[in-house]
Write a structure and sequence with these properties.
- This protein has 352 residues and is of the alpha/beta class.
- Strands 3, 5, 6, 9, 10, 17 and 18 form a seven-stranded mixed sheet that branches. The chain has a six-stranded parallel sheet with strand order 13-12-11-14-15-16, with helices on both faces.
- The chain has helices spanning 39-47, 99-102, 147-150, 158-167, 185-197, 209-217, 229-236, 252-261, 299-310, 326-334, and strands spanning 2-6, 14-17, 27-36, 61-62, 67-74, 86-89, 119-120, 123-124, 131-135, 139-141, 177-181, 201-205, 221-222, 242-247, 262-270, 290-293, 318-322, 341-345.
Length: 352
Protein backbone atom coordinates (compact mmCIF):
# COMPACT_ATOMS: atom_id res chain seq x y z
CA UNK A 1 0.00 0.00 0.00
CA UNK A 2 1.04 3.65 -0.37
CA UNK A 3 2.04 5.72 2.65
CA UNK A 4 3.73 9.00 3.58
CA UNK A 5 6.78 8.04 5.63
CA UNK A 6 8.86 10.15 8.01
CA UNK A 7 12.36 8.90 7.23
CA UNK A 8 14.58 11.19 9.32
CA UNK A 9 14.77 14.50 11.15
CA UNK A 10 15.35 17.57 8.97
CA UNK A 11 14.22 15.46 6.00
CA UNK A 12 10.99 15.95 4.06
CA UNK A 13 8.71 12.86 4.26
CA UNK A 14 8.52 10.46 1.32
CA UNK A 15 5.74 8.62 -0.46
CA UNK A 16 6.63 4.92 -0.31
CA UNK A 17 5.17 1.50 -0.93
CA UNK A 18 4.89 -0.27 2.43
CA UNK A 19 3.36 -3.51 3.60
CA UNK A 20 -0.29 -3.42 4.65
CA UNK A 21 -0.37 -3.91 8.43
CA UNK A 22 -2.02 -6.81 10.23
CA UNK A 23 -3.89 -6.12 13.49
CA UNK A 24 -2.40 -7.75 16.55
CA UNK A 25 -4.17 -8.93 19.68
CA UNK A 26 -6.66 -6.31 20.87
CA UNK A 27 -6.25 -4.23 17.70
CA UNK A 28 -8.29 -3.44 14.62
CA UNK A 29 -7.33 -2.61 11.07
CA UNK A 30 -8.85 0.67 9.88
CA UNK A 31 -9.45 1.52 6.26
CA UNK A 32 -8.41 5.16 6.58
CA UNK A 33 -11.11 7.72 5.81
CA UNK A 34 -9.06 10.81 6.60
CA UNK A 35 -5.87 11.83 8.35
CA UNK A 36 -5.09 15.41 9.38
CA UNK A 37 -1.77 17.12 8.70
CA UNK A 38 -0.58 18.72 11.95
CA UNK A 39 2.15 21.31 12.48
CA UNK A 40 3.83 19.03 15.03
CA UNK A 41 4.65 16.78 12.06
CA UNK A 42 6.42 19.75 10.47
CA UNK A 43 8.43 20.02 13.67
CA UNK A 44 9.62 16.47 13.18
CA UNK A 45 10.84 16.75 9.60
CA UNK A 46 11.67 20.47 9.40
CA UNK A 47 12.60 21.83 12.83
CA UNK A 48 13.90 19.08 15.15
CA UNK A 49 17.57 18.09 15.00
CA UNK A 50 16.83 14.76 16.69
CA UNK A 51 14.41 12.82 18.86
CA UNK A 52 13.41 14.93 21.90
CA UNK A 53 11.89 11.85 23.58
CA UNK A 54 15.05 9.79 23.60
CA UNK A 55 13.73 7.08 21.31
CA UNK A 56 9.92 7.09 21.09
CA UNK A 57 9.95 9.14 17.86
CA UNK A 58 12.68 7.18 16.11
CA UNK A 59 12.17 7.05 12.32
CA UNK A 60 11.05 5.58 10.05
CA UNK A 61 7.29 5.53 10.55
CA UNK A 62 4.12 6.54 8.71
CA UNK A 63 2.89 10.00 9.67
CA UNK A 64 -0.69 10.83 10.67
CA UNK A 65 -1.88 11.11 14.28
CA UNK A 66 -5.34 12.57 13.51
CA UNK A 67 -7.08 9.64 11.86
CA UNK A 68 -10.56 8.34 11.22
CA UNK A 69 -11.60 5.23 9.32
CA UNK A 70 -13.85 2.25 8.84
CA UNK A 71 -13.16 -1.08 10.53
CA UNK A 72 -11.69 -3.45 7.96
CA UNK A 73 -10.50 -6.34 10.12
CA UNK A 74 -10.61 -7.39 13.80
CA UNK A 75 -7.48 -8.65 15.53
CA UNK A 76 -7.42 -11.62 17.93
CA UNK A 77 -9.57 -11.11 21.02
CA UNK A 78 -11.56 -8.16 19.67
CA UNK A 79 -15.33 -8.54 19.97
CA UNK A 80 -18.37 -6.28 19.78
CA UNK A 81 -17.14 -4.26 16.77
CA UNK A 82 -18.43 -4.54 13.22
CA UNK A 83 -16.66 -4.23 9.89
CA UNK A 84 -17.58 -1.06 8.03
CA UNK A 85 -18.45 1.07 11.07
CA UNK A 86 -16.77 4.50 11.27
CA UNK A 87 -14.51 5.48 14.16
CA UNK A 88 -12.09 8.21 15.20
CA UNK A 89 -8.78 6.98 16.60
CA UNK A 90 -7.41 8.33 19.87
CA UNK A 91 -3.75 8.69 18.92
CA UNK A 92 -1.77 8.46 22.19
CA UNK A 93 -0.82 4.98 23.36
CA UNK A 94 0.64 4.53 26.84
CA UNK A 95 1.61 1.51 28.87
CA UNK A 96 -2.00 0.92 29.93
CA UNK A 97 -1.03 0.17 33.53
CA UNK A 98 0.10 3.40 35.23
CA UNK A 99 -2.25 5.87 36.99
CA UNK A 100 -2.29 8.26 34.01
CA UNK A 101 -3.19 5.54 31.51
CA UNK A 102 -5.83 4.14 33.86
CA UNK A 103 -7.70 7.45 33.62
CA UNK A 104 -7.32 7.54 29.82
CA UNK A 105 -4.52 10.11 29.81
CA UNK A 106 -1.97 8.17 27.78
CA UNK A 107 -0.24 11.43 26.88
CA UNK A 108 1.16 11.57 30.41
CA UNK A 109 2.08 7.87 30.70
CA UNK A 110 4.50 7.34 33.59
CA UNK A 111 6.67 4.88 31.67
CA UNK A 112 6.54 5.70 27.95
CA UNK A 113 9.95 4.13 27.41
CA UNK A 114 8.32 0.70 27.87
CA UNK A 115 5.98 1.37 24.93
CA UNK A 116 8.54 2.38 22.32
CA UNK A 117 6.44 5.11 20.66
CA UNK A 118 4.22 8.02 21.68
CA UNK A 119 1.18 7.58 19.44
CA UNK A 120 -0.07 6.42 16.08
CA UNK A 121 1.75 8.69 13.64
CA UNK A 122 4.28 9.65 16.32
CA UNK A 123 6.71 6.76 16.56
CA UNK A 124 4.16 4.13 15.49
CA UNK A 125 2.77 3.93 11.95
CA UNK A 126 -0.13 6.34 11.56
CA UNK A 127 -2.90 7.27 9.18
CA UNK A 128 -1.15 8.82 6.17
CA UNK A 129 -1.71 5.48 4.45
CA UNK A 130 -4.48 3.36 3.03
CA UNK A 131 -4.74 1.29 6.23
CA UNK A 132 -3.67 1.66 9.87
CA UNK A 133 -3.83 -0.52 12.97
CA UNK A 134 -4.93 0.86 16.34
CA UNK A 135 -5.89 -0.65 19.71
CA UNK A 136 -9.64 -1.28 19.85
CA UNK A 137 -9.68 0.63 23.15
CA UNK A 138 -8.69 3.78 21.24
CA UNK A 139 -11.76 3.85 18.98
CA UNK A 140 -14.44 6.53 19.38
CA UNK A 141 -17.64 5.82 17.40
CA UNK A 142 -18.66 8.43 14.84
CA UNK A 143 -22.08 7.02 13.94
CA UNK A 144 -23.38 8.72 10.82
CA UNK A 145 -21.11 11.79 11.16
CA UNK A 146 -18.72 12.53 8.29
CA UNK A 147 -15.52 10.67 9.24
CA UNK A 148 -13.28 12.65 6.87
CA UNK A 149 -14.11 16.05 8.35
CA UNK A 150 -13.96 14.49 11.82
CA UNK A 151 -10.32 13.40 11.49
CA UNK A 152 -8.77 16.64 12.89
CA UNK A 153 -10.80 16.27 16.08
CA UNK A 154 -8.28 13.66 17.29
CA UNK A 155 -5.76 16.44 17.98
CA UNK A 156 -6.92 19.85 16.72
CA UNK A 157 -10.19 19.27 18.60
CA UNK A 158 -8.99 17.35 21.63
CA UNK A 159 -6.01 19.57 22.48
CA UNK A 160 -7.96 22.86 22.88
CA UNK A 161 -10.84 21.02 24.57
CA UNK A 162 -8.54 19.62 27.26
CA UNK A 163 -7.00 23.06 27.86
CA UNK A 164 -10.42 24.72 28.06
CA UNK A 165 -11.87 22.11 30.44
CA UNK A 166 -8.96 22.68 32.85
CA UNK A 167 -9.64 26.42 32.79
CA UNK A 168 -13.43 26.29 33.14
CA UNK A 169 -13.38 27.22 36.85
CA UNK A 170 -11.85 30.58 35.86
CA UNK A 171 -14.79 31.14 33.49
CA UNK A 172 -17.59 30.18 35.88
CA UNK A 173 -20.00 33.03 36.54
CA UNK A 174 -21.23 36.10 34.75
CA UNK A 175 -19.14 38.77 33.07
CA UNK A 176 -16.18 36.49 32.32
CA UNK A 177 -13.75 36.86 29.41
CA UNK A 178 -11.58 34.41 27.46
CA UNK A 179 -8.77 35.23 25.05
CA UNK A 180 -7.53 32.98 22.21
CA UNK A 181 -4.13 33.82 20.70
CA UNK A 182 -3.42 32.11 17.39
CA UNK A 183 -6.25 31.15 15.05
CA UNK A 184 -5.00 28.11 13.21
CA UNK A 185 -6.89 24.84 13.35
CA UNK A 186 -6.71 24.54 17.14
CA UNK A 187 -7.47 28.19 17.83
CA UNK A 188 -10.53 28.25 15.58
CA UNK A 189 -11.97 25.20 17.33
CA UNK A 190 -11.11 26.76 20.69
CA UNK A 191 -13.25 29.79 19.82
CA UNK A 192 -16.16 27.51 18.85
CA UNK A 193 -15.77 25.48 22.06
CA UNK A 194 -15.62 28.53 24.31
CA UNK A 195 -18.77 29.92 22.71
CA UNK A 196 -20.54 26.57 23.14
CA UNK A 197 -19.34 25.78 26.68
CA UNK A 198 -19.29 29.17 28.40
CA UNK A 199 -21.10 32.46 28.55
CA UNK A 200 -17.81 34.33 28.42
CA UNK A 201 -16.96 37.13 26.03
CA UNK A 202 -14.46 35.48 23.68
CA UNK A 203 -11.62 37.62 22.29
CA UNK A 204 -9.29 36.35 19.57
CA UNK A 205 -6.10 37.51 17.81
CA UNK A 206 -4.08 36.46 14.79
CA UNK A 207 -1.90 37.99 12.09
CA UNK A 208 -4.12 36.76 9.24
CA UNK A 209 -7.26 38.79 8.42
CA UNK A 210 -9.05 35.70 7.03
CA UNK A 211 -8.42 33.81 10.28
CA UNK A 212 -9.83 36.67 12.34
CA UNK A 213 -12.84 36.88 10.03
CA UNK A 214 -13.59 33.19 10.63
CA UNK A 215 -13.26 33.62 14.40
CA UNK A 216 -15.55 36.65 14.31
CA UNK A 217 -18.18 34.62 12.45
CA UNK A 218 -17.91 31.99 15.19
CA UNK A 219 -18.71 34.59 17.85
CA UNK A 220 -15.39 36.14 18.87
CA UNK A 221 -14.45 39.79 19.25
CA UNK A 222 -11.24 40.09 17.23
CA UNK A 223 -8.14 42.18 17.95
CA UNK A 224 -5.30 42.29 15.41
CA UNK A 225 -1.88 41.16 16.55
CA UNK A 226 0.60 44.03 16.91
CA UNK A 227 0.77 47.51 18.38
CA UNK A 228 -1.92 48.20 20.95
CA UNK A 229 -2.98 44.55 21.09
CA UNK A 230 -2.59 44.12 24.86
CA UNK A 231 -4.22 47.44 25.66
CA UNK A 232 -7.21 46.76 23.40
CA UNK A 233 -7.76 43.29 24.86
CA UNK A 234 -7.64 44.62 28.42
CA UNK A 235 -10.09 47.37 27.45
CA UNK A 236 -12.57 44.79 26.12
CA UNK A 237 -12.11 42.81 29.34
CA UNK A 238 -13.14 45.81 31.42
CA UNK A 239 -9.65 47.02 32.29
CA UNK A 240 -8.77 44.31 34.81
CA UNK A 241 -7.57 41.69 32.37
CA UNK A 242 -8.85 38.40 30.96
CA UNK A 243 -10.09 35.53 33.12
CA UNK A 244 -8.71 32.73 30.91
CA UNK A 245 -6.04 33.14 28.22
CA UNK A 246 -5.08 30.40 25.74
CA UNK A 247 -1.90 30.76 23.66
CA UNK A 248 -1.99 28.41 20.66
CA UNK A 249 1.33 29.66 19.26
CA UNK A 250 3.82 29.55 22.13
CA UNK A 251 6.57 31.91 20.92
CA UNK A 252 8.10 34.67 23.06
CA UNK A 253 5.81 37.40 21.71
CA UNK A 254 2.55 35.48 22.17
CA UNK A 255 3.42 34.31 25.69
CA UNK A 256 4.27 37.93 26.55
CA UNK A 257 0.88 39.04 25.16
CA UNK A 258 -0.85 36.34 27.20
CA UNK A 259 0.96 37.41 30.36
CA UNK A 260 0.17 41.04 29.63
CA UNK A 261 -3.57 40.43 29.34
CA UNK A 262 -4.33 37.84 32.04
CA UNK A 263 -6.23 39.07 35.10
CA UNK A 264 -5.26 38.63 38.72
CA UNK A 265 -6.44 35.18 39.78
CA UNK A 266 -6.90 34.20 36.15
CA UNK A 267 -5.75 31.25 34.08
CA UNK A 268 -3.02 31.32 31.41
CA UNK A 269 -2.47 28.18 29.35
CA UNK A 270 0.28 27.82 26.76
CA UNK A 271 -0.82 25.17 24.25
CA UNK A 272 1.35 26.00 21.24
CA UNK A 273 4.78 24.40 21.02
CA UNK A 274 6.55 27.37 19.44
CA UNK A 275 9.51 27.03 21.79
CA UNK A 276 9.09 30.43 23.44
CA UNK A 277 9.89 31.36 27.02
CA UNK A 278 8.83 34.00 29.53
CA UNK A 279 10.70 35.67 32.35
CA UNK A 280 8.66 35.49 35.56
CA UNK A 281 9.03 37.50 38.72
CA UNK A 282 6.85 37.97 41.77
CA UNK A 283 6.01 41.54 40.75
CA UNK A 284 5.49 41.19 36.98
CA UNK A 285 2.85 38.44 36.89
CA UNK A 286 -0.56 39.23 38.45
CA UNK A 287 -1.10 37.46 41.76
CA UNK A 288 -2.54 33.92 41.81
CA UNK A 289 -2.47 33.36 38.07
CA UNK A 290 -2.63 29.68 37.14
CA UNK A 291 0.20 29.60 34.56
CA UNK A 292 0.43 26.18 32.88
CA UNK A 293 1.00 24.17 29.72
CA UNK A 294 -0.99 21.24 28.37
CA UNK A 295 -0.44 18.42 25.89
CA UNK A 296 -3.23 16.69 23.97
CA UNK A 297 -5.98 15.23 26.23
CA UNK A 298 -7.73 12.11 27.51
CA UNK A 299 -9.68 9.48 25.62
CA UNK A 300 -12.75 10.35 27.70
CA UNK A 301 -12.47 13.97 26.54
CA UNK A 302 -12.24 12.85 22.92
CA UNK A 303 -15.60 11.09 23.33
CA UNK A 304 -16.97 14.47 24.49
CA UNK A 305 -15.37 16.32 21.56
CA UNK A 306 -16.95 13.89 19.09
CA UNK A 307 -20.33 14.41 20.74
CA UNK A 308 -19.96 18.19 20.27
CA UNK A 309 -19.15 17.56 16.60
CA UNK A 310 -22.13 15.24 16.14
CA UNK A 311 -24.43 17.86 17.72
CA UNK A 312 -23.14 20.59 15.39
CA UNK A 313 -21.51 22.66 18.15
CA UNK A 314 -18.08 22.55 16.50
CA UNK A 315 -16.96 22.09 12.88
CA UNK A 316 -13.31 22.03 11.80
CA UNK A 317 -12.50 23.82 8.55
CA UNK A 318 -11.02 21.20 6.23
CA UNK A 319 -9.20 21.07 2.89
CA UNK A 320 -9.13 17.57 1.39
CA UNK A 321 -6.09 16.08 -0.39
CA UNK A 322 -5.49 12.68 -1.94
CA UNK A 323 -2.76 10.50 -0.47
CA UNK A 324 -0.48 11.17 -3.44
CA UNK A 325 -0.97 14.90 -2.84
CA UNK A 326 0.01 14.60 0.84
CA UNK A 327 3.51 16.04 0.22
CA UNK A 328 1.89 19.13 -1.31
CA UNK A 329 -0.33 19.53 1.76
CA UNK A 330 2.71 19.37 4.04
CA UNK A 331 4.62 21.86 1.88
CA UNK A 332 1.73 24.31 2.17
CA UNK A 333 1.48 23.68 5.92
CA UNK A 334 5.23 24.24 6.36
CA UNK A 335 5.08 27.46 4.33
CA UNK A 336 2.05 28.86 6.18
CA UNK A 337 -0.20 28.77 3.11
CA UNK A 338 -3.13 26.80 4.54
CA UNK A 339 -6.28 28.48 5.78
CA UNK A 340 -7.89 25.20 6.93
CA UNK A 341 -6.80 21.80 8.25
CA UNK A 342 -5.38 19.66 5.46
CA UNK A 343 -6.97 16.21 5.62
CA UNK A 344 -5.46 13.43 3.56
CA UNK A 345 -8.09 11.13 2.02
CA UNK A 346 -6.24 7.97 0.94
CA UNK A 347 -9.05 6.53 -1.14
CA UNK A 348 -9.54 9.76 -3.10
CA UNK A 349 -7.95 10.12 -6.53
CA UNK A 350 -4.98 12.45 -6.91
CA UNK A 351 -5.51 15.77 -8.63
CA UNK A 352 -4.38 16.03 -12.24
Amino acid sequence: MRALVFTDFKTFPEMQDVERPTPGAGEVLLKVAGSGACHSDVGLFHEFDGDPTGGNLAPPFVLGHETSGWIEELGPGVEGLKKGDAYLAYGPIGCGRCPACSRGQDTYCHQPETVGYNAVGLGRDGGMAEYMTVPARNLIPLGDADPIDAAPLADAGLTPYHAIKRALPALAGGGKTAYVIGLGGLGQLAVQMLVALTGATVIASDTKPEAMEAAEKAGATVVPTGDGQVERVREIAGGRGVDAVFDFVGVDATIAAAAGTVAQGGSLTVVGIGGGSHSWSFFTMPYEVNFSSTYWGTIEELHEVVEMYRRGQIAPAVERYSLEDAPTAYERLRDGELSARAVIVPHQQATA
